Amino acid sequence: MNAAEILLSVGADAAIAIECDERRVSYAALRERVRRAAGAWQALGLKTGERVVVYAPDSDDWVEVYLGAIWAGGVVIGVNPRLSMGELTPILTECEARFVWCEAPQAEELVALVASLPGAVEVVSSGVAQRDWAQCLAGAKGVDAVQLDSEDPALWIGTSGTTGTPKGVVHAQRTVVNAHSFACGILGLTAADRLYASSKLFFAYALGNSLFAGLRAGATVILDREWPTPERVEFMVDRHRPTLLFSVPTLYHKMLQMGIASRLADRGIRHFVSAGEALPPAVRRGWCEATGHALVSGYGTSETLCLMLYSDEESGLMRPTPLTDVRYAPGVDPDVPQRVWVRHTTVALGYWKRPEAQADGFCDGWFSPGDMFLRHADGQLEYTGRNDDMLKIAGQWVSTLWVEQSLAAACGETLHQIASVGVSTADGLTALAVLAVAMPGQSAEACRRMEAGIAALPGHRRPRWVHWLDALPLTATGKLQRGRLRALHEDLMGAAA
């Protein structure tokens, strides 16, 4: 088995596999490019199981290099091309990379970086680099895919780091086999579809649910080198006319605020999918009102690659996606928020050199994320946040997510960002703090609405502190860094004192 070969086994030769800017790559052309890229990797000396880091913006070249490394028997890791050299250093060191592929503008700086690192990592690029990729490709012959066991590693994905240090998640060759189960079973994905994800390919959400799912169905995958903004999403929709759009709640919210949502209503998009973070009920309702399309919200992680739970209902309650099994820890009160276990062929092998996290989250093909859910009588699940986001206050369970959503609805368009976190009071009790960012020019009104929203909450859900900031800490993928919120609150309290 070879994951890259499986991904390219379906698409009709003449069908377009990848669109990026003006470039349109057919399945026949992509198969040949990947075969030659694999030959180039082998000529460079890549051995089975060695790691290749891809450090570049999304493009058809990215796909060629990425799949070519897997085809050649390597293990590939896509990383955020916006990472600084300082941020990239621990990734290269921990994964023990053999090669780093980048575009020409980054090559010189990368060469200087790897010279200071242990091991034999080499920079591959077209132009100034230790190994010239264009030259290697020109002289390469296409090779057959290296056949491996279904449980052998194929790729790594870095966790988002929302609660601490990112971890390397190791995925097997079989992870791509059913990567399209959600898109086919829930969205009706066929070879005639055109998939566009605003998130980038180093992010599991886009990699698994757009690129891998699209290729497995023989459909067209639309890529964009540029960083996503509301205006850029509208541009991409107008230019490439996707039929399935994958984005995140933050962008959907901004598109609603800017009036872009209503302009996307008649662009031929059959389904809008939201994942990457919890979808606020106000955004769900607003999007449906503006476009006439209900957002399909999904839940997945780097460890599952694809979405494991989804909701297409106003309630937001979730059900398992096709081929996903869910189980619960025995003896846990079903009325109490709890972790769940999920099983699917896309679930990872585990973490790289993280034995404690491995033992906590993986067991016999099952994975249990650190997020908490409430079980409902009909088998549906209500997402309540991470394990440390569920708090006991005045003897009652409180989810920081519930508080954030209630206050966001109260503040409406005056609020840009909000987060709540459980903190300790001087007397050792647990209380809530809110950190918020107002929209430009809306500070006074946002503050007034926040106070009214807090007053309307039940007593045990009312935050004791509200901090107004210029911005909240975000990860490289644009997700809230919840692991920093408590320390941020303490710093602000110390400064005020």
From TrEMBL:
Keyword rRNA processing carried by entry: no
Keywords from the UniProt entry: Ligase
Taxonomy, superkingdom: Bacteria
Gene3D superfamilies, per the entry: 3.30.300.30, N-terminal domain of ligase-like
Transmembrane parts of this sequence: none
AMP-dependent synthetase/ligase domain boundaries: 15-352
Keyword RNA-binding: no
Signal sequence extent: none
Pfam families: AMP-binding (PF00501)
Protein name as annotated: AMP-binding protein
Organism field: Aromatoleum diolicum
